[in-house]
Every structure is written in C-alpha cells, then in structure tokens.
Amino acid sequence: MESAAVSSHDSTIQEIGFERTLYPYVMGTSVLGMKYKDGVLLAADLGGSYGSTLRYKSVERIKPIGKHSLLGASGEISDFQEILRYLDELILYDNMWDDGNSLGPKEVHNYLNRLMYNRRNKFNPLWNSLVLGGVKNGQKYLGMVGMIGTHFEDNHVATGFGNHLARPILRDEWNEDMSFEEAVKLLEKCLRVLLYRDRSSINKFQIAKITEEGVTIFPPYSLKTFWGFSAFKNPTKGAEGSW
Amino acid sequence: MAPPLSHPQVPLAMDPDLNAPHSMGTTITGVTYDGGVVLGADSRTTTGIYAANLDVSFSLILHIRVGVYVANRASDKITPLTDNILFVRTLLETGGLIVGGWDKYEGGQIYSVPLGGTILRQPFAIGGSGSTYLYAFFDQAWKEGMSKDEAEKFMVKAVSLAMARDGASGGVVRTVIINAELLLGRFSSTVARRARASQLIA
C-alpha cells in the first residue's frame, strides 16, 4: 500500500493516482418511501445543507430512473449526482439493446447495492442512503441501500432522521390498501414531524409517485405548521431571571 | 503534523497549514439577469489556503461558449481552462467555485460548485467566507428579471456589504459581465485589463 498523506483541510486522502472521500459536505436530509394501493410514493424536502447552514433550497433529491423506478437520496449531493450518472449509463445501455425489455426497480436496486458495497470495500464510499421505489408488471417494489451496502426491501422506508421519527408513525398507521390521498396525508404527517424536529429540513417538499402508468413528480409545496401551544404563550412565566 | 502535500501533479505551492482555520478568504457572487450573468468578487487574499500572491481575479471563472477561461495572473493572459484544469482542481478542493456564462441555448447561467463537487444551477450564487453575511441579504433583496445595470449594482452592493463585515474580504469589488455581446471579442480585453490592473494592487 503506498504511503498516504492525509490533509485535514480538505476531505481527501491523496495517494498517488487517486483520492478518497472522508467527509460529506453538501447533504440532503431524510427521504421517505411507502407503498400504497396503486404504486409507490417517495417524499423528500428540497434542502442541501452545508454543515449547519441551509445553503441550497432547490435541490431535487428524487429522480426517475428508466421507466419503472424512482430514486431518492439523502447524504452528499455530489455523490448522488454521480450515482445518477452511473444509472444514466446503465439505462442507456439497457435501451440500446432495444429488445423490449427494460430494467425494473428490482434490477436497479441490485445494481445500486453492488455499486455502494463495492465502493465501501475500497474505503471510498458514496456517501448516500438511497431509496428505490418502482412498479413493473403490476408488482410494487420499495427498497433501500445504505452507504456501506446494507440493503433491504420493505413496505415503508426512511433514511436519516426519518428512520427515527417517521418509521414509528408508518409502522402504526400504514396499511396495504391506502388510497393516494390517504398515503399523502400519512407522508405529510411524517414530513411535518421531521420539519419540526430535524434541523436540516426545510419547508419545501416534493412528493413523487410511481404507478404502472409512470412517474409523476409533483411541484414543490410547503406544509402548514402549528405553533399555538399554550405553553408557548407566556414563555417567561415561572422562569426567574428571564426576560 | 503531516508532511506537506507534494502531489506531483499539482504544480502550485500547496503547503497546507493544518492548524489554519478552514476559511476561504474571499467573497464571490454570481447573479443571472435577463440576457446574461454578472460575476463579482472582492480583491483581498489571505494567507492560509489561498496562496497570498495569486491574483484574486482567479476567483472569477469565465465561461465562454465551449471553452472555459481563467484569468491567470501568472501568465497575465486569458488562457483556456484546459491549461488550468489542475489549477481549478486545486480550487475545487480548497474552496467553492461559481461558474457563470452565457450560451445561445440557455442564455445566462450560473452554476454553484461547492466543496464536494456538487453541481447546482441557480439563479444566483454566493461563496467564500464573506458569503455568510450575504445569505439574508440575498433572501430579502434579490429578485428575478433584473436588468444588466440593476444586476451589476446589486452585485457591488452585496460584495461591499460582505467586505464590510468579513475580515478576509476587502480591497475593491471586481465585476465581470458576460452576455452575448461580450462573447464577440470585447470580453478578453476587459478581463485582460482587469488582470493587469490587479498587478498594481500588492
């Protein structure tokens, strides 16, 4: 192994010939995903945080992949952009076969898993948690891949903070036959909790839907929040010394 | 203390002071207007990560059609980015970039390239240590559809405000306007003039 010089002022180890990522910089926060009656829904906010600064407010973190899948990512945005380039090539080659077959969500999920795990083994991870949802031939699919290559499928998934705040809500309230409206309401409930409690989230969300018919990514919108708690009304009451 | 980086491919002196704060020592901004873009920056350089003797006009990266040009003090001429690709790579690793330019397909465009290498197209962009003082200003005062003069005035105001508060930014405000006209030849003389002018500032 060649000798490495570590520089702490940037985030790379520079060995002769290549570099590795040590730290993420511009990051997206949670992505939520859940199956519903007609397909799969993904939701994420449009924020790109730079440490504690909410630096970018129009980062689309959910993208369609091919005809049958949606990919949502949290983590380092540049690595997400890199993954999109890999997938673009994958889908392009798939289309070039022109054989009537197309890669479905299961295949894309597997590809992503291999990609992430491979990078992890080289100690040069793509610093993302990915949510892959899709529908092909009537079969709904929802899976997750982490930056170390952990992967699984489930009826509802979440990345980052969503794991802790949203999944318990989903576990309680999700069911197989939710209509689109019910599903969106449930997602919004989770997104609202994340908005209140996750400092990296912003009040600008996108919901994306995939069904057998295709992909729809809805325009960004914001949620109403409630701050009229009685405990907030007289904040200094009983607090000696405050003003 | 780790030895200095001596990556053979990076010709510039890159002796990182590992104890220096991770500052970017400048303020850079870019704004689109109806017909092109305006890029702006202060002129102060601080020691640390940015070599103190590099003309700060390198913080203006100028995009012309397919070629990308960098105002390069060392040679005092406008050289294609391909010659400066390692230079830019150094910038990429130590600070953010703002790339701005014009082409006939999409008009004026600004792209933000922060640390990490994310590429994001934006209607305006700010960067550098002084930019922290500008987030709120832009949130409030920036609007779509400014004219060329409004955009330039706005830039100067923004960079001035940052210079007023950021110790690592100062000197003069330099702006560069890129639009369809400027691509047709007046461009290089403008930048060369600025590059030469900067030599007068120690």
UniProtKB/TrEMBL annotation, chain A:
Lineage top rank: taxon: Eukaryota
Organism: Phoenix dactylifera (Date palm)
Gene: LOC103721761
Name of protein: Proteasome subunit beta
Family to which the UniProt record says this protein belongs: Belongs to the peptidase T1B family.
GO CC terms, sorted: cytoplasm; nucleus; proteasome core complex, beta-subunit complex
Pfam families, per database record: Proteasome
InterPro entries in alphabetical order: Ntn_hydrolases_N, Proteasome_alpha, Proteasome_beta4, Proteasome_bsu_CS, Proteasome_sua/b, Proteasome_suB-type
Keyword S-adenosyl-L-methionine: no
Keywords annotated in UniProt: Cytoplasm, Nucleus, Proteasome
Subcellular location: Cytoplasm; Nucleus
Oligomer and partners: The 26S proteasome consists of a 20S proteasome core and two 19S regulatory subunits. The 20S proteasome core is composed of 28 subunits that are arranged in four stacked rings, resulting in a barrel-shaped structure. The two end rings are each formed by seven alpha subunits, and the two central rings are each formed by seven beta subunits. The catalytic chamber with the active sites is on the inside of the barrel.
Xref: PANTHER family: PROTEASOME SUBUNIT ALPHA/BETA (PTHR11599)
Function text: Non-catalytic component of the proteasome.
Gene Ontology BP, a term: proteolysis involved in protein catabolic process
SUPFAM superfamilies (alphabetical): N-terminal nucleophile aminohydrolases (Ntn hydrolases)
TrEMBL record, chain B:
Entry-linked InterPro entries: Ntn_hydrolases_N (IPR029055), Proteasome_sua/b (IPR001353), Proteasome_suB-type (IPR023333)
SUPFAM superfamilies, alphabetized: N-terminal nucleophile aminohydrolases (Ntn hydrolases)
Keyword entries, A-Z: Cytoplasm, Hydrolase, Protease, Proteasome
Molecular function per GO: peptidase activity
Record's GO cellular component terms: cytoplasm; proteasome core complex
Alphabetical list of Gene3D superfamilies matching this protein: Glutamine Phosphoribosylpyrophosphate, subunit 1, domain 1
One annotated GO biological process: proteolysis involved in protein catabolic process
Subunit structure: The 26S proteasome consists of a 20S proteasome core and two 19S regulatory subunits. The 20S proteasome core is composed of 28 subunits that are arranged in four stacked rings, resulting in a barrel-shaped structure. The two end rings are each formed by seven alpha subunits, and the two central rings are each formed by seven beta subunits. The catalytic chamber with the active sites is on the inside of the barrel.
Name assigned to this protein: Proteasome subunit beta type-6
